[in-house]
Structure formats: structure tokens, C-alpha cells
Amino acid sequence: MISAIDSNILLDILIPNPAFVDAAVAVVEDAASNGALVVSDIVYAEICVHFINQQDCDSFFSDNRILIEPLTREAHFLASRAWHRYRAQGGKRTRILADFLVGAHARLQADRFITRDRGFYGSLFPGLNICDPSAQSS
Description:
The chain is an alpha/beta fold. The protein has eight helices and five strands; from the N terminus they run E-H-H-E-H-H-E-H-H-E-H-E-H.
């Protein structure tokens, strides 16, 4: 099984967020024991800002056996369709295209998506298998 990880989960672990760190670690460890861990190149960019240099960032991903994947053209197209539907339905501009790219990557290039943002991704990407660690710890 391929599990894509959202930036909010990685930040829960990196920063760490006391409310979510234990659940995030448990879900990521479980996913790692059952298959591959991946992030989109968009999530990689979002996480890079929290490191002093690229070598440290790359070591974090490598040490945790998390692969960085570029989006396919199909994922880019799916993201554009989801963003267009969202805006046409009156969706706020607080959601940026990067959010849609992350969701499309998870939908088309992974078997499940580990995120705490299940409402947003679940409504915009039907069929996306979402694992929310915060829901499991409540």
C-alpha cells in the first residue's frame, strides 16, 4: 500500500504538535510497516521551509523512508478540475492551488492519504481513501 502524507501530519511530528504528535507518529509508523510512504513535491516544498538547509530536509525524508514524487500530468489536470469546481461553488480564496495539487497527487498516485484535513479533501476528491490520525485519537 502506498500512503501519501500531508504536510500537516509531518509538521505535527516535526514541530511537534502536542495535540496530534502521538497519533501522527502511530499512523505513519503503521503505514510504513504496511507499504511505501510518499509525499508530493508540493508537500516537500512546504516542509523545506522548516529546515536550515536542503541536506537536513532531505535527511529527514530519507531517514524516515519517505519518497518525494513529482505530480503526473493527470494529477495536475485533476487538481485544476477540483479547483475550478470549488471556485464555481463559491469556495473561498483561502484555499490555494497547492492544496488541490496535494489532493490530486494523493488521489491518483497513492492508495490512501494521511491528513487531518479530511473534510476538505474528502469533498473535493471523491474516492480518496483518507486516514485522519486525529479522528483515531479522539
